[in-house]
Design a protein that fits this description.
Length: about 250
Amino acid sequence: MFGRAKKRAFSYTDQKTQRHKVRWVVLWVFCFFGMYTFLTSFVFSIRVLENSSMRPGLYAGDRFVFSSYKIYSVIPGLVSGPDPAKLPFHRGNVVLVNMAESKKRNFFYAVLDGAVRFFTVQKLSLDSSASDMYLKRVIGLPGDEITMTNFVIRVKPLGEHYSFTEFELWDRPYKVDIPQVPALWDSSLPFSGNMDKIVLGEDECFVLSDDRGNTNDSRTWGPVPVKNISGKALLRYWPLTRFGRP
């Protein structure tokens, strides 16, 4: 009888220990997702390039770590005013452009979407606005004067007396894919590779695809509001053979 009583007591203690372990597992899972949601909302996001619009330097399937896609909107004065030096991105940076910036998402829906994207390695998303996210390269900042000849941009920065090619204003080289168009192609079209002078407003940026035959960028959208620049590419982490700063 004493042995049975001891066994029952041991079983109760064992059950209590197991329940304690389960509570700790649940707590760790809760804390993990809380931290993950905070980080992916205010510190970084993971994105996949879905198309070939950024060739020849970036390829479909490449995966990137982006800086915060919300932090620009919560730091007072960071994205307001005519001074480009205040901006957290610069000419030549690869950025995430959110063309659905005005759409508001339910917080809990956003958390669930983040979990789905995390566990499917960014292959699935519940958020239909994900299709409004584009990876582009910043060419012009607020106040810049911009022209295009044969798909190459010339930029006269705010306060400068001379214009420069886009490549002269970026300390890291990048390549663009220049398409061939017929000699008699209508030069008024964005597909022609030529563009008359425009001057960006104090809250506008000009973004382009590296594949200049892909005109799903500021040539067809027009200048992009600064608030729509949702993040800056910090690192390409996949594939490992192209690991590094984009």
